Q: What sequence folds into this?
């Protein structure tokens, strides 16, 4: 057993059989900095929300999950207190070097570019939109990591040139199908998933498989459906609280990483819990 990745949020181990074990920690990052505070049980919320969506979308695309049962994992992960609800064993995928962002609403960097250029990532937007308005059709905008490690949006034409039309079209189609299915389900439960990010890879048989986490508040914008309206920035279930506090205190993106006040950490923990409960219908992790 060796640790192969210590990401911003996950610790990734490789078993002797070549599977992965992903442990989702309570770490939180904002503005690309891992903060010096943890959010109690955040890792459980992310892992269990992802598992819920993987199950719901397994007819659209196979996912990387092998099991979430600790007793079926290497003995190192038997400690329920430490690993329960936050750990999965997965297939090790040959990951594609892209992130696939699906946008259902006019917001964020898309809004900025739309106002300036009437386009986003090389895709023209002809319709009139207000801030936070639902798009006529969801839009897939891939990105790659550039040499500084930051994400850089790329055009669909570039994706096609790099991986071929057929693979690109398949990926875009799968992205839209997963987004639409989960979007409808979340909407019924009071959450608008405005946009999200997927990561794909190929398994040992060359089958396209979805990996990482899906449709979580860390990989998506989650908005409260009850008071959503266009023209204003919606109330958000993700890290917006933390981001706002960092900006107010001029601590966004600084190192050494700031520590959050207890109150902000607790409020954020409650938001992740609320997301988890709304989506899965379960009261406890
Ligand atoms: N099934 C899989 N096979 C191989 N790698 C995977 C698989 N699922 C997830 N990963 C990778 O494991 C890592 C998860 O760690 P974490 O989410 O903490 O990363 P991160 O710091 O967010 O980095 P990134 O910005 O690349 O997502 C990511 O690099 C992700 O691409
Ligand atoms: Mg990640």
A:
């Amino acid at each position: 057993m060796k640790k192969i990745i210590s990401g911003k949020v996950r610790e990734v181990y490789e078993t002797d059989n070549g599977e992965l074990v992903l442990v989702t920690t309570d770490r939180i990052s904002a503005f690309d900095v891992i903060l010096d505070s943890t959010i109690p049980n955040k890792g459980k919320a992310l892992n269990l929300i992802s598992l819920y969506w993987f199950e719901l979308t397994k007819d659209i695309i196979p996912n990387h999950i092998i099991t979430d049962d600790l007793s079926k994992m290497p003995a190192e992960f038997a400690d329920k207190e430490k690993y329960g609800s936050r750990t999965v064993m997965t297939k090790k995928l040959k990951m594609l070097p892209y992130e696939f962002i699906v946008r259902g609403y006019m917001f964020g960097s898309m809004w900025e570019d739309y106002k300036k250029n009437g386009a986003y990532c090389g895709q023209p937007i002809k319709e009139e939109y207000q801030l936070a308005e639902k798009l006529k059709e969801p839009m897939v905008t891939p990105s790659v990591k550039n040499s500084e490690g930051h994400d850089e949006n790329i055009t669909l034409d570039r994706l096609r040139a790099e991986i071929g039309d057929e693979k690109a079209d398949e990926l875009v189609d799968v992205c839209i199908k997963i987004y639409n299915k989960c979007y409808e389900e979340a909407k019924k439960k009071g959450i608008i998933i405005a946009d999200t990010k997927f990561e794909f890879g190929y398994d040992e048989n060359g089958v396209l498989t979805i990996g990482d986490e899906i449709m979580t508040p860390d990989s998506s914008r989650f908005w409260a459906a009850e008071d959503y309206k266009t023209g204003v920035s919606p109330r958000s279930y993700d890290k917006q609280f933390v981001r706002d506090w960092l900006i107010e205190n001029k601590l966004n993106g600084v190192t050494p990483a700031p520590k959050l006040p207890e109150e902000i950490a607790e409020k954020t923990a409650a938001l992740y819990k609320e997301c988890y409960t709304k989506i899965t219908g379960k009261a406890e992790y």
Notes: Residues 7, 9, 212 surround magnesium ion (ligand 2) (CB under 6 Å). The chain is about 30% helix and 30% strand. The chain has a mean pLDDT of 96.
